[in-house]
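Before surveying the methods themselves, it helps to consider a single example record, giving the amino acid sequence and backbone structure tokens:
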Amino acid sequence: MSTQNKKESKIEVIKRQSRYLRGTIKEALQDGKPMFSEENVQVLKFHGVYQQDDRDLRHKLLKEGKEKHYSMMVRARIPGGVLNPDQYLVFDRLADEYSEYGTLRITTRQTIQLHGILKGNLKATIKRLNESLITTLGACGDSGRNIICCAKPGDEPFRAEMREDLLALTDRLSPKTNAYHEIWLDGEPVQLSDGETEEPLYGDVYLPRKFKVAMVPEGDNCIDVYDNDIGLVAHIENGHVAGYTVLVGGGMGRTAVVQTTYPRLASPLCYVPRKDVVDTILDTCVAIVTIERDFGDRSNRRFARMKYLIDRRGLDWFRQEVETRLGRTLEPPRKLEWHNGHDHLGWHRERDGISYLGLFVPYGRIKDTETMKLKSALQNIVREFRPTVRLTTQQNVILSGIPDEFRPAIEERLRSAGVPLPHELSTVRKNTMACVALPTCGLALAESERALPDLLPQFEQLFHELGLSDETITVRMTGCSNGCARPYNANIAFIGRAPGKYDIFLGGNSLGTALNERFTETVPFDQLVDTVRPVLEAFVCEREPGEDFGSFCRRVGLNRFRNVKTEQS
């Protein structure tokens, strides 16, 4: 089904008229208003900026006859999540100086969000990031977003090769418009000759929807590679990258009330040798992007992700289209094997005399509380010991390049700040994720980041009662069905459906290679644990040797538990 003759959506028109992402943002920064126009809000996303308001204050301000309390969320683009010490400290200082919340938020795409930036401080914030060689261009919007990669440090040659390929692909897929420099860095307007374009890859309307790329070594799916539009799985031979199996068409987003939307795991497309990275994997990825650019749905954004294009046209058609654009036949994909999906927490050897420490960050929020001064501890450790900071897609932090003699001192800094080491935490706690949700996300229907801390101790107690404390069972919560915390391949997921109510999804697996399914709908928050309990009890009694929770759910089916719930009701 062609979408070429359908009417463009409103956002497509805004993009086309934005003059390569300029809009009237530069003028709006000087107008003295606390918010941007609707048109500029859409264009700002490409610059890494979302306009938000404090939803906790909405009712009160409305009652007082006042407008919403607007602020901006600024998201950086950090390829592979790697920051040098000075770059991390810039984020830390900006959170103190400009964020109304004073916190850093690690995202599931290995980057940092600053929430609560007032419009008047927006330009200064972005300029300070750029001075530390960090951009926000392409962190959001309908283009290639931050490319994620396994964050595990090491001295193996393949890790350096993957990093080289990631940076080269980042450059190829990044927007090229000069608008970012003109607006935020006071750059001179670009002068184009006749026939030239600022965006040779994306054109003046960019992609139909956001586009996500991930890279991981075979065997270690710590990033949920199947959840991306393009997944690149590196095959390692003799310590080097021999090539990549390319996966296409993954995506977590769905709309709860639209049954024809759905999450999808990426499909294996081809294998690409790493003979010459410029002529192979980069060109293959660019060809895939151009197919989405040319054929993706621009009339209905709910169906604009590449997964719907592939399902609509078929994988065979998609493969033939890639081959046509490349001018060569693609090699068949290689069979993939996966051994773990954990997040490399705790102390590990990086190379001789050097270690790294993976630290659990509760729900991705780096902040100080009365009992745990995580933000201060990380600030002091980074300033004193100068580790490289690596952000993970499970919202945690890895501090790498630490000489072994500094390990005791770093542990002392953490303990004095009330920060537990990973081995002191329960297994289920280390396998939790939550999206931001309320009060800043405009799409959230229910709490997530603020609710999971109340729910998690109940699960820890239940797992202890059932003898599952050492079992790897992933628990993820989101405030709506869009899937920002990758809930649809978790073992247990709670997805906000209405204030205080959640849909429960069960299944999935810790390797990120299977989707879960909806177990039941609109369950009140205080009934979530009791609703899941019977399934966990049956798992303990009926599991086969070596069977994990997700496999058990898929083997026995969830209908028997739904029927029990109906009878009890």
Q: What stands out?
A: The chain has a mean pLDDT of 96. The longest helix spans residues 157-173. The first strand starts at residue 49 and ends at 53. The radius of gyration is 23 Å.
